[in-house]
Amino acid sequence: MGILETITQSKEGRMPPSSSDEATGLSTEDSVADIVAPVLSEHQAELIDVAFRREDGQRIIEICVDDDSECGPSLDTIVALSEILSQVLDAHDKGSAPYLLQVTSPGLDRPLTRVRQWLRNRGRLVTIDTTDGESLRGRIGPVRDNAVVILTVPTMKKGQRINPKRLTVHTVPFTSIALAMIEFEFSEPSDVDWEIVMDDDKLAAFVHQEGK
Has the keyword Cytoplasm been applied to this entry (predicted)? Predict the structure, then answer.
């Protein structure tokens, strides 16, 4: 899921908003989220985030969405949702300044915040900061009982083979995760850790052997 799909639409806006409009228009990220979340749910999608920013003086409303498909929303899905959300926001627009609407899907630069993201990224390298201040780096394993299994991976030099004895398994409850980010890899993962983390039987055997 390394590709970030983005669809942009330009919205002209109308008159500047009055103070009475600000609570119900498009003036805050929360107000936009309240508008689009139920609409996305009706179309089998989920709101991940709403962000306001400016680029070259242009106001941008970015809406990040996800769905249950194996690889995340397709480009066609993003295009369709962009059209739908554009019409919905137009209907709620109280005369905001011109803006660009960008509808995107989660890329590698977004934190893992949903269970489906963990499931979709099994095998990828992740760095986790826990709520108690610890840091963990490893490959994503299966999701079980509101927790994710992580096979820790030591930092290796290019071409260096991983010693299985240096691998450890941790079960991390989702409630203890403060931040989790996918780590981009410039080379193919090692066969050793990849085969263990992607196979439930091998992972169980590794845990059993580790416990001896």
Answer: yes
Distances (CA, A) of 194 to 124, 125, 128, 167, 199: 9, 10, 18, 11, 9
Mean pLDDT of 165-174: 88
- The pLDDT of residue 13: 44
Q: Are 119 and 170 in contact (CB under 8 A)?
A: no
Query: Sheet containing 58-66: which strands, arranged edge to edge?
Result: 6-11, 99-104, 58-66, 46-55
Find, among 47, 112, 54, 51, the residue nearest to 73 by Cα: 47
Predicted confidence (pLDDT) per residue in 66-88, tens digit: 988 877 888 899 999 999 999 99
Contact 139, 124 (CB under 8 A): yes
Alpha-carbon span 48 to 111, nearest angstrom: 10
What is the rounded distance in angstroms from the CA atom of residue 171 to the CA atom of residue 182? Answer: 17
pTM of the model: 0.67
All domains of the chain in start order, with CATH: 29-104 (3.30.300.70), 115-208 (2.30.30.100)
